[in-house]
Amino acid sequence: TVSRVSEVNEQDMKRVEQAIFDARLQADVIAVSIHAHEISGTRKEDPDQFLQEFAHRCIEAGAHVVIGHGPHLLRPIELYKGRPIFYSLGDFILQNENIRRGPAQWFKSQGLSPDATMHELFATRSAQFTRGLQTDPVMFEAVIPYWELEDGQLTKLDLMPVELGFGRPRSIGGWPMFAPDRGIIERLAEMSGKFGTQIDIENGIGRVLI
Q: Number of folded domains in the chain?
């Protein structure tokens, strides 16, 4: 078996580190956001190796938090040098089917006339809604974090689980609602444990042990 190794692009990384340095001169708290889909291995929940290197170096450069997004699902939480890294918090709103119009090339790519409706487009692309992101319940799960810093270090991190209404009618689906089921936080705790992060559950809220 040939293993694959990924790493950051050094030129890009240097630019990001410089941007963080500049931000430190202007702000009390620095948040870095990165959009990345890549995975390590076969699980969509596992962030690629370069992403962890990127996040660590951002923290070392002075960022107080790194927030990843892009894969449309939850990924682990890591605490690095006393600061949080969210490899992905999931989606907070799903509105694909409610888009009113799209570019002509979208319709052409699916063999449809540009005069077709958006519903026809999404139905064709998803094989009548039997494949794609919105057929997987985990794509409808997310957490909303609340954290506190003291002297630049994390002192509190709570996680509110939300779900976006998997299987609900189009008119009411896609809106975030509190998810009292422990399953979302338990799944997040399991994957975050591989990064040394411990998460307890109190009254339906995840509490990260600092």
A: 1
